[in-house]
Amino acid sequence: MTDTKTLEQVGGKRGYLLPYHKMLAAYDGELLAKYDAFYTRLTLTQKTLTDREKEFVWVTLLVAVREGHGTLHLRRADAAGLPRAHMHIAINLAGIAESRPATAFAKQYWKDWAPDAAMDELYFANIAAARGDVPEALVELALATAHASKRDAASLQLHIKRFFAAGGKPAALVEALAFLLLPCGGPTLIEAVDAWAEAAADGKIPSPF
Predict the structure, then answer these.
(1) Is residue 207 part of a domain?
(2) Residue 35 belongs to what H/E stretch?
(3) Is residue 206 assigned to a domain?
(4) How many structural domains comprise the chain?
(5) Are 138 and 54 a contacting pair, CB within 8 Å?
(6) How many angstroms separate the CA atoms of 119 and 70, rounded?
(7) Are residues 23 and 56 in the same domain?
(8) What integer pLDDT is reported at residue 1 of this predicted model?
(9) Among 3, 50, 44, which residue's Cα sits nearest to residue 25?
(10) In the predicted model, what is the mean pLDDT of the chain?
(11) Quick one: DSSP state of residue 43?
(12) Which of 33, 88, 167, 195 has its CA 20 to 30 A from that of 128?
């Protein structure tokens, strides 16, 4: 029997219902209720990140994983007052993150033409040019999350260090990386946290635990 009460609560809170909400309501209302509580805490409840910051990271992440079902985050970004120009920067950052494997390839196979320092300089220059007036720590947070979604540990560690160097707080990184659970799943988050812990092993940046 469909758990109509829970389904109505989910729809009322979010303003929409997804097919799996209806399926769970029909067959496992308790799971739907617990999932809704998890989802609420994960991305609806304001914690360290402001609503604008949260949706900025979400936009970058959704482009990074090519998740077309994330339109609701664009609406939330509008509701939070995230300027369209900042939304466009978030989209652009996802593209810049994807340039990192290309420069890594060039550094590996064409060292005489594409030395490490030159390729890194190009990558960082692209970030600086795209950033606009978005705070540096938020840009680094979005890039860290984008690379985490690709399971690129080295690039994730790079941006985690830059995030903390820009004054970022551990709780903000925890909040952003936890978003990976929805579009990417638990294994991706496991690898991201392992990469963070490895980067923090020398004690120069905060540890995830």
Answers:
(1) no
(2) helix 29-39
(3) no
(4) 2
(5) no
(6) 32
(7) no
(8) 84
(9) 3
(10) 96
(11) I
(12) 195
Range of the domain at 31: 1-45
- 153 and 183, same domain (yes or no): yes
Residue-by-residue DSSP string for 142-185: HHHHHHHHTT-HHHHHHHHHHHHHTT--HHHHHHHHHGGGTTT-
Burial class (CB in 10 A: 0-12, 13-18, 19+), 161: middle
Q: Return the pLDDT at 129.
A: 97
| pLDDT tens for each residue of 23-77 | 999 999 999 999 999 999 999 999 999 999 999 999 999 999 999 988 999 999 9
Same domain, 107 and 34: no
Instruction: Answer whether residue 193 is part of any domain.
Output: yes
Domain of residue 163, CATH code? 1.20.1290
pTM assigned to the model: 0.94
Q: How confident is the model at residue 179 (pLDDT cuts 50, 70, 90)?
A: very high
Structure tokens at 112: 């005489």
Residue 100 shares a structural domain with residue 40: no
**Per the domain annotation, does 209 fall within a domain?**
no
Residue 15 has pLDDT above 90, yes or no: no
Structure tokens belonging to residue 103: 């420069």
Alpha-carbon span 134 to 136, nearest angstrom:
6
- Residue 151, CB half-sphere, CA atoms under 13 Å: how many? 8
Contacts of 187 (CB under 8 A, 6+ apart): none
Task: Output the CA–CA distances (angstroms, integers) from residue 5 to 29, 64, 197, in the order listed.
Answer: 9, 36, 42
